[in-house]
Amino acid sequence: MKKVDKETLKLAAQHLMFEMSDEEYESLLADFDSIISKMKILGEIEGIDDVEPMTFPFDVTNSYLREDIAGEPLTREDALKNAKDIHNGMIGLPRVVK
Amino acid sequence: MELRAIIGLEIHVEMNTKSKMFSDAPVSFGQLPNTQVSAFDMSFPGTMPTVNKQAVINAIRVSNALNMTIDNVLMFDRKNYFYSDLPKGYQITQYFRPIGRNGCLTFNSGDENITINIERLHLEEDTCKQFHVDDFSYLDFNRAGIPVIEIVTKPEFKSGQEVRKFVELIRSIVVFLDVSHGKMEEGNIRVDLNVSLEDDNKRWSKVEIKNLNSLSNIEKAINYEVNRQKDLVIKGKTIGRETRRYDETNDRTVMLRIKTDSVDYRYFTDPNIPPIKLSDEFIKNAIDTSPELAHVKQKKYKTLGLSDYDANLITNSKETCAYFEKGLETGCSPKTLANWINIQVQKVLKLKCISINEFSISAKELGELILLVEEHKINNSQAKSVFNEAVETGNSVIDVINKNKTNHILDENEILDLIKEIINSNQNLVNDYKNGKEKVVGYIVGLVMSKTQRKADPSLTNKLTVVELRRR
Q: For chain B, what percent of residues have pLDDT higher than 90?
């Protein structure tokens, strides 16, 4: 398993576009150490490599599909409530393409 | 050294469902920005996706039309990326288990039948629409979340013409299946191309051309790009792995960005949508209730007596098929109705730049007008006059007939009386006819038409004249 060090976390933070303090990195590293050591224990279980990877904790499926009926949309005021810059009913932001 | 083009496609088809892929916000085009959105489409925290049943049915129908294997478990994955067109930070798509796999489609290009293999068909949500003006970008979320199917072919096309024919066929399939409006100019169908060259020993880097939304631009973009790449190879230059766009004004492709390492979208199964089991019955029902495709209708129309040519013209558009089928309900001759639609109606549509749905004469009215001719109640030239007047004035066919009293066409007895009167007053006509002068028939028909101000049916008059002359 790839070692998670401060550089790995810094790269991840950069990809996710947020900054963290040194203390936060230390705390997160400690968390990772704990998680990885638990993973190691799981890895020692006999026959674990033969188990299909799971996405959900329980092997269940359902058959529910929503009927194609249009509901009431949000009012424009509600939809744009959190937007900083509104221009002609659209959310404005610094140009994202050259 | 023969350089050959190899082209693969990714076709995005925006559906015409009533609600969005994962929310019940309405799908309605041409509305004010940000008025067709739900909390989920805006990625408000705590909102959860629910899968649109009709979108799944549509995907099954298209997969079936493309001869694909349909997965009976529906699973969705997150494609993670950070960009303003999707505020969740990921797009819900089907990366690991597309609903359709391993299909193929055979079509005619030039003089040959070509079969193209189709790798996958998956369901996903559309992104929001971005407008870039000066230093700003503006976001309209009405499009965000509209159901989309993406069809990915194997790189097996050899020319722009083949690709164009294929996309035309895909368009016809999704329109006839009522999956999409299929309006390429409005972005309902968007095509990304992967174009590369190969010879017997080598395959060069592939270039992606994104977001083509017209059939002619697809063909032109491929022709330009293939020539550009051939030119580079001949000059010994490198073909870069890059993404380009088609510049319509200057008929060329322009580089957007160089492809470095492929982007890692960190795909993983969406934990908010547990696997959905599609029963055999559900899949079968979606297929069995599927609307007819163009080629099925063509076959059906030919059994009604239409020529290949007429059947092809009618099935060029789903709306024309609907008009034709509605007209048939009147009981008129299918062949005559097809002729009227393909000639008279199409002429008016072209002239007025309208679709058949906007045409003022309904299919029922046209069918009934044709019936009047078939029942010899009016003649063909009168029917055309009525048709033209109804088109010009916007009045109903029946109003035009009543106004002009063209419905007061002479019946068989009235015509026969006139024929007898003409023959009685000129016995020579009978003698001439019996001596082999067949022109006499045309002469008598002409007199009847003139005496009735063309209110008699010429073919009926002709028939009655011959019978009467022979009887004498």
A: 74
Residue carrying structure tokens 């997969």: B63
Ranges assigned E (strand) in B320-406: none
**pLDDT > 70? residue B463:** yes
DSSP output for B283-340: HHHHHHTPPPPHHHHHHHHHHTT--HHHHHHHTT-HHHHHHHHHHHTTT--HHHHHHH
Q: Which residues of A touch B282 (CB under 8 A)?
A: 63
Task: Using DSSP, state whether B45 is helix, strand or coil.
Answer: coil
Closest chain A residue to B256, measured at CA:
A98
ipTM score here?
0.81
Say how many C-beta atoms besides its own lie within 10 A of residue A85's C-beta: 12
Q: What pLDDT is attached to residue B267?
A: 94
pTM, entire model:
0.82
| Structural domain boundaries, residue A23 | 1-53
* Domain annotation covers residue A97: no
Report CB contact under 8 Å: A96, B131: no
Write the single-letter amino acid at A34: S
Is B377's pLDDT higher than 90?
A: no
pLDDT of residue B405: 65
Instruction: Say how many domains are in chain A.
Output: 1
- Residues B232-244 pLDDT 10s: 999 999 998 999 9
d(CA B293, CA B272): 36
pLDDT of residue B315: 95
* CA distance linking residue B386 with residue B404, whole number of Å: 9
B269: nearest CA partner in chain A: A55
Q: Does domain B412-471 have CATH number 3.40.50.300?
A: no
**A9 occurs within a structural domain:** yes
Token couple for B437: 């002068």
Task: Determine the residue of chain B that is closest to A88 in CA distance.
Answer: B33
- Give me the residue spans of the domains in chain B: 4-277, 292-404, 412-471
- CA quadruple B110, B113, B116, B121: dihedral positive or negative? positive
Q: pLDDT digit string (tens) for A51-88?
A: 887 888 888 889 999 999 999 999 999 999 999 999 99
Residue type, B103: G
In a domain, A34, yes or no: yes
Whole-number pLDDT of residue B351 = 93
User: Of A63, A69, A74, which has the smallest distance from its Cβ to B279's Cβ?
Assistant: A63
Phi first, then psi: give them for residue B60, nearest 5 degrees.
-65, -45
Please tell me what DSSP assigns to residue A59: -
